[in-house]
């Protein structure tokens, strides 16, 4: 078969090319940040379920939780991260703002859990930092779309 260097007339082409529009591609770091937000939200939901069940590793020696309302914050983080992550994948500015707040406050809050679960805390803090980096890397994407 002969190879063609030009598209054949009547062949399949890009619809954006025919209409004259330009397609704005979402940067890969935005997708990465949204996926990591979903992952951190899963960790938050898992920790909320475990705290609700009263497992020993979220409780201090006196039987109290690491900080008050652990279940509430886990479920709230799950809802915020899901909504912000979906909005971020759609290219919305609300997702970027909520992503910054979610990751920043989440990293600060997980600092209080380090004495109880040091490895999980460091992993979640690192994931929150990755979300902030992913959002900051292409901060002009939302402004241009």
Give short descriptive properties of this protein.
single chain, 145 residues, mainly alpha, 6 helices
Structure description:
The protein has 145 residues and is an all-alpha fold. It has one domain. 66% of the residues lie in helices and 0% in strands. The chain is built from six helices and no strands. It has helices at 15-19, 28-53, 70-90, 93-111, 118-137, 140-144. Helix 4 runs antiparallel to helix 5 (118-137). It is elongated.
Structural class: mainly alpha
Give helix % range.
Answer: 55-70%
Radius of gyration, whole Å: 21 Å
- On the 0 to 100 scale, the average pLDDT is 75
- The counted number of beta strands is 0
**Total number of helices:** 6
String of helices and strands: HHHHHH
Distance between the termini: 43 Å
Outline the biggest β-sheet: none
* Range of strand content: under 5%
Low-confidence stretches: 13-21
The shape, in one word, is elongated
The tally of structural domains comes to 1
In short:
The chain is mainly α. It contains six helices and no strands. 22% of the residues are buried.
């Amino acid at each position: 078969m002969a190879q063609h260097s030009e598209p054949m007339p009547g062949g399949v082409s890009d619809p954006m090319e025919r209409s004259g529009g330009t397609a704005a591609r979402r940067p890969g770091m935005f997708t990465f940040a949204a996926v990591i937000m979903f992952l951190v939200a899963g960790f938050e939901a898992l920790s909320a379920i475990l705290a609700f069940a009263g497992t020993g590793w979220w409780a201090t020696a006196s039987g109290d939780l690491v900080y008050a309302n652990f279940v509430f914050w886990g479920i709230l983080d799950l809802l915020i991260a899901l909504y912000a992550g979906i909005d971020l994948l759609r290219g919305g500015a609300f997702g970027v703002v909520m992503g910054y707040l979610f990751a920043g406050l989440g990293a600060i809050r997980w600092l209080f859990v380090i004495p109880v679960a040091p490895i999980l805390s460091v992993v979640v803090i690192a994931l929150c930092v990755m979300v902030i980096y992913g959002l900051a890397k292409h901060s002009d994407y939302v402004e241009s779309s």
